[in-house]
């Protein structure tokens, strides 16, 4: 991959020398506030030929992970996206002190680059270490999971015009993992809600809404039953709403949201909620648009770290056979481009992807077609090149 | 008051009023239904549109000459009509009558010093452990998924709704979710008994045991143990988030679903949305001795109060189920057929089903259809 990266770098430099340099184009990509979601400026940026290549940590993953990662890299290459990939492996190793951790070079790479793209990881059942996703979450303090669910034209589901985003608190709540066997036959599981985490996620939700021109934020809760815990979450959401008066804020019970979501999903915009409800609702919304094979997802952490991932499984039965569908990872990569401010590239790749799916000529098996992964990738690359 | 009106001897009550196990153990033939025998049923209108729906039920019953008499109680937390004495009165009435029909008692959002709402306390005191929601597509009203026929069984007394919360330090709140083997076994047995009685083929347990290993793990283990006692019924399990996804993509793969409290709340409402909303899905709650009939998706729907737009279908279908439970088969069929006929004809529909009629119009149409039944 280094060869092609060099080639594009040299191409950029040559282009720069070949054109008159406009003073404005010299602006460097801004490093500030990546934790605030993608930038407000959605308009196509001027072609920054002096823009330096940004490095992104790539974690291919297991099963179909390597195939779809290659597909994404190829498409990015075709789109001339100024991204340099650093591949890392994250199998858990036992660090000093006996604690399981990810390999130090992976951690160092992520801390340096701040942005990562991850394929599906498998958790071996009796390996003795916690799930890889959990380990990554703890290492980088990934507190927000963002899943935009947009209906894909060309992939028909009974639900059309879905356009919502679920933002889920990812560190505490019902998934705190604190369980005890009190007496034989009685188990107690603790749901933890803290002020700090609720405040952080509420702030992030409003920032996201503002940066992505979203009209409203809805807090989903069950404060009628869990009065203190969800009550605290709701209070923090209300306080954050006060500070961001330009975004409309509503609150709705979880059961009402479920009821209305399957009848009319167009009434929802941005949803923010604690861990368990978020898990369920984000999968529900993924089901509305066609399943986990086409849903992008991003995890935002403290210190500006952001890891974008595909949420489907490793599909070991089709690994290596060129049957995989790279759409989920591709759309997550597009989310990543938007987060980094490369809106024009993001739009280009996304449009190419949607057009290819809409044309229905080259589709992978899970989308209803008969083509291979490489053919699908090639079709998208072609469309991207045609757009230039 | 007649002998039957007081509820009769214990064995008669067990034979006719309890579900599954006791019913199959009874060795008496069902006594003939006497026309002048009235059954007493406790009625609790609740909040929001509850009173309007109850009026609808009473109107239809009167028009159909249904031999049921209602004992009304008004208990409401939001309207400040709740107190311990009222709750006691209500409980003693229910213990006498054994059967009740109710709306939803809304839980106010403000924390008034009591963590458990009246609705939850009612459930606990009567030990209404099983909540059954019948999700059936209505003929004549098509949604994105047609011909659905699911039963959702939810454990109603423990799980996440334990109301055990505390603030350890300011800003850190813990909420306990309790799962016990006894109650998990009980609900699993109820689910399999129900499936056997109604001739269902498959029971699917819904859980999140990959994350909550001890809690949901115990629930799953109990379900698996009970499943072995029923070899004719297929048993499967599925994780809650996958279940939600499958319900919106392919709901026909499910038959009977059994799950703990919170997941039950979510799936009840999801499934209700699949067939047409909270206005069309009936539900009931069972304990070993009592049965309470209500709507499937429980919302007080306060925005519709006084506007006469609520859909009484769910409550009427639930009332028909109640009549079947009381062994009044003829009347039960009469009411449910009338409601289904009105929906099938499609001329009179309330707002939530896409029409413009009021609750009153709908009830009137149902009453009309009642009278057209052939008399014999």
From TrEMBL, chain A:
Its cofactor is Mn(2+); Mg(2+). Pfam families: Iso_dh. The keyword Oxidoreductase applies. GO terms for molecular function: isocitrate dehydrogenase (NAD+) activity; magnesium ion binding; NAD binding. Keywords: Magnesium, Metal-binding, Mitochondrion, NAD, Oxidoreductase, Transit peptide, Tricarboxylic acid cycle. It catalyses: D-threo-isocitrate + NAD(+) = 2-oxoglutarate + CO2 + NADH. GO terms for biological process: isocitrate metabolic process; tricarboxylic acid cycle. Its main location: mitochondrion. Residues 55-380 form the Isopropylmalate dehydrogenase-like domain. Heterooligomer of subunits alpha (IDH3A), beta (IDH3B), and gamma (IDH3G) in the apparent ratio of 2:1:1. The heterodimer containing one IDH3A and one IDH3B subunit and the heterodimer containing one IDH3A and one IDH3G subunit assemble into a heterotetramer (which contains two subunits of IDH3A, one of IDH3B and one of IDH3G) and further into the heterooctamer. Catalytic subunit of the enzyme which catalyzes the decarboxylation of isocitrate (ICT) into alpha-ketoglutarate. The heterodimer composed of the alpha (IDH3A) and beta (IDH3B) subunits and the heterodimer composed of the alpha (IDH3A) and gamma (IDH3G) subunits, have considerable basal activity but the full activity of the heterotetramer (containing two subunits of IDH3A, one of IDH3B and one of IDH3G) requires the assembly and cooperative function of both heterodimers. This is Isocitrate dehydrogenase [NAD] subunit, mitochondrial.
Automatic annotation (TrEMBL), chain B:
It comes from the Eukaryota. Its main location: mitochondrion. GO terms for cellular component: mitochondrion. It holds the Pfam family Iso_dh. The keyword Transit peptide applies. One of its GO terms (biological process) is tricarboxylic acid cycle. One of its GO terms (molecular function) is oxidoreductase activity, acting on the CH-OH group of donors, NAD or NADP as acceptor. Residues 40-366 form the Isopropylmalate dehydrogenase-like domain. It is found in: Mitochondrion. Keywords: Mitochondrion, Transit peptide, Tricarboxylic acid cycle. InterPro entries: IsoCit/isopropylmalate_DH_CS, Isocitrate_DH_NAD, IsoPropMal-DH-like_dom. Heterooligomer of subunits alpha (IDH3A), beta (IDH3B), and gamma (IDH3G) in the apparent ratio of 2:1:1. The heterodimer containing one IDH3A and one IDH3B subunit and the heterodimer containing one IDH3A and one IDH3G subunit assemble into a heterotetramer (which contains two subunits of IDH3A, one of IDH3B and one of IDH3G) and further into the heterooctamer. Belongs to the isocitrate and isopropylmalate dehydrogenases family. Plays a structural role to facilitate the assembly and ensure the full activity of the enzyme catalyzing the decarboxylation of isocitrate (ICT) into alpha-ketoglutarate. The heterodimer composed of the alpha (IDH3A) and beta (IDH3B) subunits and the heterodimer composed of the alpha (IDH3A) and gamma (IDH3G) subunits, have considerable basal activity but the full activity of the heterotetramer (containing two subunits of IDH3A, one of IDH3B and one of IDH3G) requires the assembly and cooperative function of both heterodimers. This is Isocitrate dehydrogenase [NAD] subunit, mitochondrial. It comes from Gouania willdenowi. The lineage of its organism: Eukaryota, Metazoa, Chordata, Craniata, Vertebrata.
């Amino acid at each position: 991959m280094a060869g092609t990266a060099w080639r594009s770098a040299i191409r950029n430099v040559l282009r720069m020398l070949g054109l008159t340099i406009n003073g404005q184009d010299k602006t460097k990509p801004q490093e500030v506030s990546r934790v605030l979601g993608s930038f407000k400026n959605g308009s196509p940026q001027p072609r920054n030929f002096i823009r330096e290549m940004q490095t992104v940590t790539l974690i291919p993953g297991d099963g179909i992970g390597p195939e779809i990662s290659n597909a994404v890299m190829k498409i990015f290459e075709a789109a001339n996206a100024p991204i340099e990939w650093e591949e890392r492996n994250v199998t858990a190793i036992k660090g000093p002190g006996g604690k399981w951790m990810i390999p130090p070079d992976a951690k160092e790479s992520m801390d340096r680059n701040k942005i990562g793209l991850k394929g599906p990881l498998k958790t071996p059942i009796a390996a003795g270490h916690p799930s890889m996703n959990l380990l990554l979450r703890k290492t980088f303090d990934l507190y927000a999971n963002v899943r935009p669910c947009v209906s894909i034209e060309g992939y028909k589901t009974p639900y059309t015009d879905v356009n919502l985003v679920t933002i889920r608190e990812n560190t505490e709540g019902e998934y705190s993992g604190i369980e005890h066997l009190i007496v034989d036959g009685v188990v107690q599981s603790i749901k933890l809600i803290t002020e700090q985490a609720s405040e952080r996620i509420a702030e992030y939700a409003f920032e996201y809404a503002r940066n992505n021109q979203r009209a409203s934020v809805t807090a989903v809760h069950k404060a009628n039953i869990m009065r203190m815990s969800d009550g605290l979450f709701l209070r923090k959401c209300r306080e954050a709403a006060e500070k961001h008066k330009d975004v409309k804020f509503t609150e709705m019970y979880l059961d009402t949201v479920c009821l209305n979501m399957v009848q009319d999903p167009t009434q929802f915009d941005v949803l923010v909620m604690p861990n368990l409800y978020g898990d369920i609702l984000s999968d529900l919304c993924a089901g509305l648009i066609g399943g986990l094979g086409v849903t992008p997802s991003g995890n935002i952490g403290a210190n500006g770290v952001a890891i974008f991932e595909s949420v489907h499984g490793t599909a070991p039965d089709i690994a290596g056979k060129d049957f995989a569908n790279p759409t989920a990872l591709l759309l997550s990569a597009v989310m990543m481009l938007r987060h980094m401010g490369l809106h024009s590239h993001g739009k280009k790749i996304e449009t190419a992807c949607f057009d290819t799916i809409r044309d229905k000529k080259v589709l992978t098996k899970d989308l209803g077609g008969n083509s291979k992964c490489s053919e699908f990738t090639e079709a998208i690359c072609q469309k991207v090149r045609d757009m230039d | 008051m007649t002998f039957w009106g007081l509820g009769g001897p214990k064995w008669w009550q067990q034979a006719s009023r309890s579900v599954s196990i006791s019913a199959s153990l009874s060795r008496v033939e069902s006594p003939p239904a006497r026309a002048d025998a009235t059954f007493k049923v406790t009625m609790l209108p609740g909040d929001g549109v509850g009173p309007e729906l109850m009026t609808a039920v009473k109107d239809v019953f009167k028009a159909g000459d249904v031999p049921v008499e209602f004992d009304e109680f008004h208990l409401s937390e939001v309207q400040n009509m709740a107190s311990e004495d009222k709750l006691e009165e209500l409980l003693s009435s229910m213990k006498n009558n054994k059967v009740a029909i109710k709306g939803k008692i809304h839980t106010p959002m403000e924390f008034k010093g009591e963590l458990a709402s009246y609705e939850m306390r009612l459930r606990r005191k009567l030990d209404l452990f099983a909540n059954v929601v019948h999700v059936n597509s209505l003929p004549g009203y098509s949604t994105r998924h047609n011909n659905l026929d699911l039963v959702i069984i939810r454990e109603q007394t423990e799980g996440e709704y334990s109301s055990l919360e505390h603030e350890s330090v300011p800003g850190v709140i813990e909420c306990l979710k309790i799962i016990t083997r006894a109650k998990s076994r009980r609900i699993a047995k109820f689910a399999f008994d129900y499936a056997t009685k109604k001739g269902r083929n498959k029971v699917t347990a819904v859980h999140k045991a990959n994350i909550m290993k001890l809690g949901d793990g115990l629930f799953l283990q109990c379900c698996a143990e009970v499943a072995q006692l029923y070899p004719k019924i297929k048993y499967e399990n599925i994780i809650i988030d996958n279940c939600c996804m499958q319900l919106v993509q392919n709901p026909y793969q499910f038959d009977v679903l059994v799950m703990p409290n919170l997941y039950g709340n979510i799936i009840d409402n999801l499934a209700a949305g699949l067939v047409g909303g909270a206005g069309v899905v009936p539900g009931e709650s069972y304990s070993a001795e009592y049965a309470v009939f209500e709507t499937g998706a429980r919302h007080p729907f306060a925005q519709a109060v006084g506007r006469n737009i609520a859909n009484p279908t769910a409550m009427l279908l639930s009332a028909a189920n109640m009549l079947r439970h009381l062994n009044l088969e003829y009347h039960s069929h009469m009411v449910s057929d009338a409601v289904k006929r009105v929906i099938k004809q499609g001329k009179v529909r309330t707002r939530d089903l896409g029409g413009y009629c009021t609750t009153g119009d709908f009830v009137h149409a149902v009453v009309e259809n009642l009278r057209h039944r052939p008399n014999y």
